[in-house]
Design brief:
133 residues; alpha+beta; Nucleoside Triphosphate Pyrophosphohydrolase; four-stranded mixed β-sheet; 2 helices; 19% helix; 35% strand
Length: 133
């Protein structure tokens, strides 16, 4: 059975590197974010997920859509697609792992192969825009 996995992600770039997170029990890094719950808006999902994962508060007034990407979902039934709506935003607090996240890391374009296909599309666009080293 195929399906759409609808996710929202926070794009945080500093010094040409993008923030990525590895959930507990997984060996793959992802752009921080997650799936919407119920009728949540993209903004609601983004604010909740980033607070849950990285213990920081995003500033809703600075949230900007940077792109939406779709790609096959590895490890899911054939034909499943991940849609990732990506946003930048300023934050307050100190980035830290939560109970959900094992590790955070700052990736350059050279780390592209360590993230899933949908994240790789974002990496490609950021590299083309000279935002990722």
């Amino acid at each position: 059975m195929s399906g759409l996995i609808d996710t929202v992600a926070w794009v945080r770039i500093e010094d040409g590197r993008i923030l990525c997170a590895r959930p507990r029990g997984k060996d793959v890094f992802y752009i921080p974010g997650g799936k919407r719950e119920g009728a949540e808006s993209d903004l609601d999902t983004l604010l909740r997920e980033i607070e849950e994962e990285l213990t920081v508060h995003l500033d809703p007034g600075t949230v900007t859509h940077v792109g939406t990407y779709e790609a096959a979902a590895p490890g899911h039934p054939g034909g499943s697609v991940v849609r990732m709506s990506c946003y930048t935003a300023e934050y307050r607090g100190t980035l830290a792992v939560s109970s959900e996240i094992e590790e955070i890391a700052w990736f350059s374009y050279a780390h592209r192969d360590l993230v899933p296909p949908v994240d790789q599309l974002l990496f490609d666009d950021l590299k083309a825009a000279s935002q990722l080293t």
